[in-house]
Amino acid sequence: MTEQPAPYKPNPTLKRIEHGFENILFNSRWLMAPFYFGLVICLAVMLFKFFKKLWEFILIAPSANEADIILGALSLIDVSLVGNLILIVVFSGYENFVSRIDPGDHPDWPEWMTKVDFAGLKQKMLASIVAISAIQVLKAFMNIDVAFDATKMGWLVGVHLVFVVSALILALSDRWGSDHGAE
To answer: What residues have CB less than 8 Å from 63, skipping those under 6 apart?
Structure first.
Protein backbone atom coordinates (compact mmCIF):
# COMPACT_ATOMS: atom_id res chain seq x y z
CA MET A 1 0.00 0.00 0.00
CA THR A 2 1.34 3.41 -0.97
CA GLU A 3 1.35 6.22 1.47
CA GLN A 4 -0.73 9.32 0.55
CA PRO A 5 0.99 12.68 0.87
CA ALA A 6 -0.35 14.95 3.59
CA PRO A 7 -2.76 17.61 2.33
CA TYR A 8 -1.23 21.01 1.76
CA LYS A 9 -1.78 23.42 4.63
CA PRO A 10 -0.94 27.04 3.85
CA ASN A 11 1.36 28.81 6.22
CA PRO A 12 -0.84 31.18 8.29
CA THR A 13 1.89 33.84 8.44
CA LEU A 14 2.31 33.84 4.65
CA LYS A 15 -1.46 33.96 4.25
CA ARG A 16 -1.66 37.07 6.48
CA ILE A 17 1.17 38.74 4.53
CA GLU A 18 -0.55 37.92 1.24
CA HIS A 19 -3.87 39.26 2.53
CA GLY A 20 -2.20 42.46 3.79
CA PHE A 21 -0.44 42.97 0.46
CA GLU A 22 -3.69 42.45 -1.45
CA ASN A 23 -5.40 45.02 0.80
CA ILE A 24 -2.66 47.55 0.04
CA LEU A 25 -3.03 46.90 -3.69
CA PHE A 26 -6.81 47.12 -3.53
CA ASN A 27 -6.79 50.35 -1.51
CA SER A 28 -4.16 51.94 -3.77
CA ARG A 29 -6.99 52.66 -6.20
CA TRP A 30 -7.81 55.66 -4.01
CA LEU A 31 -4.56 57.27 -5.18
CA MET A 32 -6.46 57.99 -8.43
CA ALA A 33 -9.10 60.11 -6.65
CA PRO A 34 -6.92 63.28 -6.58
CA PHE A 35 -6.37 62.91 -10.33
CA TYR A 36 -10.11 62.97 -10.91
CA PHE A 37 -10.49 65.94 -8.57
CA GLY A 38 -7.78 67.71 -10.57
CA LEU A 39 -9.78 67.03 -13.72
CA VAL A 40 -12.84 68.59 -12.07
CA ILE A 41 -10.73 71.71 -11.48
CA CYS A 42 -9.66 71.50 -15.13
CA LEU A 43 -13.35 71.40 -16.07
CA ALA A 44 -13.87 74.63 -14.11
CA VAL A 45 -10.98 76.20 -16.05
CA MET A 46 -12.63 75.04 -19.29
CA LEU A 47 -15.86 76.70 -18.14
CA PHE A 48 -13.96 79.96 -17.60
CA LYS A 49 -12.40 79.62 -21.07
CA PHE A 50 -15.84 78.90 -22.58
CA PHE A 51 -17.34 82.07 -21.07
CA LYS A 52 -14.32 84.10 -22.19
CA LYS A 53 -14.72 82.82 -25.76
CA LEU A 54 -18.48 83.36 -25.59
CA TRP A 55 -18.00 86.98 -24.49
CA GLU A 56 -15.47 87.59 -27.29
CA PHE A 57 -17.89 85.96 -29.73
CA ILE A 58 -20.74 88.22 -28.61
CA LEU A 59 -18.55 91.33 -28.93
CA ILE A 60 -17.43 90.59 -32.51
CA ALA A 61 -20.79 89.20 -33.72
CA PRO A 62 -22.35 92.51 -34.88
CA SER A 63 -19.47 93.28 -37.25
CA ALA A 64 -18.45 89.71 -38.11
CA ASN A 65 -18.96 88.02 -41.44
CA GLU A 66 -20.54 84.58 -41.80
CA ALA A 67 -17.20 82.74 -41.70
CA ASP A 68 -16.21 84.49 -38.45
CA ILE A 69 -19.57 83.54 -36.88
CA ILE A 70 -19.08 79.91 -37.91
CA LEU A 71 -15.49 79.90 -36.61
CA GLY A 72 -16.65 81.43 -33.32
CA ALA A 73 -19.38 78.82 -32.96
CA LEU A 74 -16.90 76.05 -33.77
CA SER A 75 -14.54 77.37 -31.08
CA LEU A 76 -17.35 77.21 -28.52
CA ILE A 77 -18.27 73.69 -29.65
CA ASP A 78 -14.61 72.69 -29.40
CA VAL A 79 -14.33 73.87 -25.79
CA SER A 80 -17.60 72.16 -24.84
CA LEU A 81 -16.44 68.88 -26.44
CA VAL A 82 -13.24 69.02 -24.40
CA GLY A 83 -15.39 69.62 -21.32
CA ASN A 84 -17.50 66.58 -22.22
CA LEU A 85 -14.34 64.53 -22.62
CA ILE A 86 -13.12 65.58 -19.16
CA LEU A 87 -16.51 64.70 -17.66
CA ILE A 88 -16.53 61.27 -19.31
CA VAL A 89 -13.05 60.53 -17.98
CA VAL A 90 -13.89 61.74 -14.47
CA PHE A 91 -17.10 59.76 -14.05
CA SER A 92 -16.22 56.56 -15.83
CA GLY A 93 -12.64 56.55 -14.56
CA TYR A 94 -13.76 57.01 -10.97
CA GLU A 95 -16.53 54.42 -11.37
CA ASN A 96 -14.25 51.87 -13.06
CA PHE A 97 -11.08 52.31 -11.04
CA VAL A 98 -11.86 53.85 -7.66
CA SER A 99 -15.36 53.31 -6.31
CA ARG A 100 -18.89 52.71 -7.49
CA ILE A 101 -20.96 55.88 -7.66
CA ASP A 102 -24.37 55.71 -6.03
CA PRO A 103 -26.73 57.98 -7.95
CA GLY A 104 -29.12 57.71 -5.00
CA ASP A 105 -32.31 59.63 -5.45
CA HIS A 106 -31.16 61.90 -8.27
CA PRO A 107 -33.96 61.57 -10.85
CA ASP A 108 -31.95 63.44 -13.49
CA TRP A 109 -28.82 61.26 -13.12
CA PRO A 110 -27.71 60.29 -16.64
CA GLU A 111 -27.83 56.52 -17.18
CA TRP A 112 -24.43 56.34 -18.89
CA MET A 113 -22.53 57.70 -15.88
CA THR A 114 -22.71 54.43 -14.00
CA LYS A 115 -22.72 52.12 -17.00
CA VAL A 116 -19.61 53.05 -19.00
CA ASP A 117 -17.07 50.26 -18.77
CA PHE A 118 -13.43 50.61 -19.79
CA ALA A 119 -14.11 49.63 -23.43
CA GLY A 120 -16.96 52.15 -23.58
CA LEU A 121 -14.70 54.78 -22.00
CA LYS A 122 -12.07 54.22 -24.70
CA GLN A 123 -14.69 54.49 -27.44
CA LYS A 124 -16.28 57.64 -26.02
CA MET A 125 -12.88 59.25 -25.54
CA LEU A 126 -11.73 58.44 -29.05
CA ALA A 127 -15.06 59.62 -30.51
CA SER A 128 -14.64 62.93 -28.66
CA ILE A 129 -11.06 63.26 -29.87
CA VAL A 130 -12.19 62.59 -33.45
CA ALA A 131 -14.88 65.28 -33.11
CA ILE A 132 -12.40 67.78 -31.65
CA SER A 133 -9.94 66.96 -34.42
CA ALA A 134 -12.65 67.36 -37.07
CA ILE A 135 -13.49 70.81 -35.68
CA GLN A 136 -9.83 71.83 -35.88
CA VAL A 137 -9.71 70.72 -39.53
CA LEU A 138 -12.98 72.52 -40.25
CA LYS A 139 -11.73 75.71 -38.56
CA ALA A 140 -8.54 75.59 -40.65
CA PHE A 141 -10.61 75.01 -43.80
CA MET A 142 -12.94 77.90 -42.95
CA ASN A 143 -9.87 80.11 -42.50
CA ILE A 144 -8.22 78.92 -45.72
CA ASP A 145 -8.69 82.21 -47.58
CA VAL A 146 -7.12 84.23 -44.74
CA ALA A 147 -4.09 82.09 -43.92
CA PHE A 148 -3.50 79.02 -46.08
CA ASP A 149 -0.64 76.83 -44.94
CA ALA A 150 -0.54 73.61 -46.96
CA THR A 151 1.82 71.91 -44.51
CA LYS A 152 -0.35 72.72 -41.50
CA MET A 153 -3.52 71.66 -43.35
CA GLY A 154 -1.83 68.40 -44.37
CA TRP A 155 -0.83 67.69 -40.79
CA LEU A 156 -4.30 68.51 -39.48
CA VAL A 157 -5.96 66.21 -42.00
CA GLY A 158 -3.34 63.49 -41.47
CA VAL A 159 -3.70 63.53 -37.68
CA HIS A 160 -7.48 63.57 -38.02
CA LEU A 161 -7.37 60.53 -40.31
CA VAL A 162 -5.13 58.72 -37.81
CA PHE A 163 -7.73 59.39 -35.10
CA VAL A 164 -10.57 58.20 -37.35
CA VAL A 165 -8.73 55.00 -38.31
CA SER A 166 -7.78 54.42 -34.66
CA ALA A 167 -11.43 54.79 -33.62
CA LEU A 168 -12.51 52.33 -36.31
CA ILE A 169 -9.86 49.80 -35.33
CA LEU A 170 -10.78 50.14 -31.64
CA ALA A 171 -14.49 49.69 -32.40
CA LEU A 172 -13.79 46.65 -34.57
CA SER A 173 -11.45 45.07 -32.02
CA ASP A 174 -14.00 45.62 -29.24
CA ARG A 175 -16.73 44.11 -31.42
CA TRP A 176 -14.58 41.12 -32.38
CA GLY A 177 -13.56 40.69 -28.75
CA SER A 178 -17.15 40.72 -27.54
CA ASP A 179 -18.20 38.33 -30.33
CA HIS A 180 -15.37 35.98 -29.41
CA GLY A 181 -16.20 36.19 -25.71
CA ALA A 182 -19.81 35.23 -26.40
CA GLU A 183 -18.81 31.89 -27.88
So the answer is: none
